[in-house]
Design goal:
The protein is α/β, with parallel strands linked by helices. The protein contains ten helices and eight strands. α7 links the parallel β5 and β6. Bound molecules: pyridoxal-5'-phosphate.
Length: 240
Amino acid sequence: MHLETARLSTLAERIEWVRQTIANAARRAGRNPDDVTLVAVSKTVSAEQILAATELGIHHFGENRVQEAEKKIIALADRLPSDVTWHLVGHLQSNKARTAMAIFAMIESVDSLRLATVLSRLAVERGTPASILLEVNVAGEASKFGFTPTALPNVLPAILSLPMLEVRGLMTVAPAADNPEEVRPVFRHLRELRNALNTSLPNVHLRELSMGMTNDFPVAIEEGATIVRVGRAIFGERSA
Ligand SMILES: *Cc1c(COP(=O)(O)O)cnc(C)c1O
């Protein structure tokens, strides 16, 4: 956690700090701050805290477990503003895909052709397209899910041919690092991979780059992140 955010005690102050930090990073990179979407990662955070964040203008929430998200959404029911959207940022098992599609506006963690195929089939069944990102394991860590940067170009045409699947871009989780500069090459690699795919494959328009978390989101924005997924800097350290 950044020292600065640890000192900020209220949710309002922390959200304001994250907003300012996003805007400053965007300006450093000559980008428009409005081109960066803030997803507040609310895993382990209570439904009441989520509601409080919506009152401070947060519209997008990220969860990594389908059942946890479902419980909170049911608990908040009609108290949530209608413009709130949920992003799935954790690994999705096929047997939870049906529930996930009912809950999440975007599934950021599509990490196999098999899962993409299941989502496509369910989207056809529902008659609603599924909006997805493809997760890339840029650093090739054994502990992480995702396509390798070398496998993705080969598998992408098959994914793009699936009906009712809107592939909006790429997502990655950078390795843990003491200094965020250490993971700058990971973010740069994801951007270059997206650009290369957009140029080499016809009819590919991957726009989104979901990258950057509490420890490294300013660097990710400098490298082109269009979505940052920030948990602890907003809600505080997780006990669980
Ligand atoms: C937990 C999580 C985040 C947020 O991490 P923080 O360090 O709390 O900002 C972002 N992305 C994914 C995939 C996560 O699991």
